[in-house]
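Re: [ENG-882] Designed sequences occasionally contain unexpected residues at chain ends

Forwarding the minimal case from QA. Structure tokens:
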């Protein structure tokens, strides 16, 4: 099996990830249809399935036109009345089979950004929507800090070499905030230089890896004494509980 994974830029800063084997393709969170259809045509691919992480419009608005163009495909995603285009609902612990069982992805529920958010992963890849970004995480629209922190702990505990495919090009902005919190973190400084070089060439900063995110992502570091020591004066934190630290860091990022 030769799996290719490519980003299809969409909207202002989204990536619709396209997975392909031979002439079949699967797309993740298609917020637009036109760039997907153009990519499929250019690369002689036939859409075989869609996987969805959550209900926000920039992740699902392209589905109706794609299913019109490819009427027999499955649309995997969380069971919610807010996504009427899902054909195959998924729950925590499910397995999604793609490309005639050549690729299997486990489903993990990760509420926080939205309550119905899921992610898909195996030993090599993680498609995490807006729960986890490189050096960041999504805004907390529906969940509470404990839910979101537990979701991020789940993702952080996955294999360190797993590639992280999130759905927005937010890395540069996220790294500015990360460096503000940990000005002495050399991993952050090194990654800033690498990302800046990529973006100057208009190349994606993604995928990341779980191991990289453990080093540079403040939202995965809220339980670490050295992280709390670095930020306690910056954010005026007295409570060292990881959930409380996460809540303070998320609130600070909202206003950064």
């Amino acid at each position: 099996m030769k799996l290719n994974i490519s980003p299809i830029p969409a909207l202002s800063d989204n990536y619709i990830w396209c997975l392909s084997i031979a002439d079949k393709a699967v797309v993740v969170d298609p917020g637009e249809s036109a760039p997907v259809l153009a990519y499929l045509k250019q690369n002689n691919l036939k859409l075989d399935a869609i996987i969805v992480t959550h209900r926000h419009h920039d992740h699902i608005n392209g589905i109706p036109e794609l299913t019109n163009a490819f009427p027999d495909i499955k649309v995997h995603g969380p069971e919610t009345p807010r996504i009427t285009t899902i054909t195959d609902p998924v729950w925590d612990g499910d397995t999604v089979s793609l490309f005639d069982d050549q690729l299997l992805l486990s489903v993990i529920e990760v509420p926080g950004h939205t309550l119905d958010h899921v992610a898909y992963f195996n030993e090599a890849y993680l498609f995490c929507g807006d729960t986890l970004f490189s050096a960041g995480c999504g805004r907390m629209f529906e969940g509470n800090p404990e839910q979101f922190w537990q979701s991020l702990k789940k993702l952080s505990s996955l294999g360190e070499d797993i590639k992280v495919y999130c759905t927005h090009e937010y890395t540069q902005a996220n790294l500015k905030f990360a460096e503000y919190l940990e000005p002495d973190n050399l991993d952050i400084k090194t990654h800033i230089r690498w990302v800046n070089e990529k973006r100057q060439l208009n190349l994606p900063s993604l995928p990341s890896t779980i191991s990289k995110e453990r080093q540079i992502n403040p939202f995965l570091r809220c339980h670490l004494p050295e992280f709390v020591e670095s930020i306690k004066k910056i954010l005026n934190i007295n409570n060292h509980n990881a959930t409380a630290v996460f809540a303070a860091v998320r609130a600070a990022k909202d206003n950064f």
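QA comment: On inspection the terminal residues look reasonable. The first helix runs from residue 34 to 42. Proposing we downgrade this to a documentation issue.
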